[in-house]
């Protein structure tokens, strides 16, 4: 079993990466033999959807734009579960927007044209973490949840606020809500979802 952590922050050593890493650690603790991988969007070139509809409208899950999107998508497809971490920007980093909009466009045409096969990421358990400078993360989570709905993934939720996933505000070690601990617990829930 393999879980991929997608770090949407432009800072590789930032809080988003720490939260994603904590989810992966929790998942590894909960499931023997589970492997984890990290994908830093900061290291990739992923441009915006061109709205050309040339290839994606005819061939399921193929995009005409050639950049790192294809390899990112291949790694997401290959994983059994996915963790996505985003910082609160306005509302999220543009590179993560680019990944989401490109993928949502492919999913849209897959659904529209009545292609018989499943969506590429269909039923994959996923989990979300958000890092903020102190602000609320609701808009980021709702964006990510809509992304999960459009791509037919299965988000794992938590019993405590903000329910959609785990938020870390400011310095993670000083945040009294203990986001790193909560992120490890989210990882355990994700591992459980993988086994179901
Ligand atoms: C463009 C931009 C916009 C941001 N907007 C907000 C905001 O509205 N509210 C907030 O609490 N933090 C905001 N932040 C701070 C980041 O959410 C915070 O520093 C977060 O930890 C960044 O993630 P990172 O540590 O992975 O880089 C913003 C940061 C950037 C770069």
Quick one: biggest sheet?
6 strands, parallel
Output mean pLDDT. Answer: 95
CATH-defined topology: Rossmann fold
Q: Please tell me what the overall shape is.
A: globular
Helix content: 25-40%
* Class by alpha and beta content: alpha/beta
Concise overview:
The chain is α/β, with parallel strands linked by helices and 196 residues long. The chain contains 5 helices and 6 strands, in the order βαβαβαβαββα. Strand 3, helix 3 and strand 4 (125-132) form a beta-alpha-beta unit.
Question: Would you mind describing this structure in some detail?
Answer:
The protein has 196 residues and is of the alpha/beta class. It has a single domain (2-195), classed as Rossmann fold (3-Layer(aba) Sandwich). The protein is built from 5 helices and 6 strands. It has helices spanning 15-30, 69-78, 94-112, 138-151, 179-195, and strands at residues 2-7, 35-40, 81-87, 125-132, 154-155, 166-169. Helix 1 (15-30) packs across helix 5. The longest helix has 19 residues, at 94-112. The model has no long low-confidence stretch (mean pLDDT 95). The structure holds flavin mononucleotide. Residues 9, 11, 14-16, 87-90, 131-135 line the site of flavin mononucleotide.
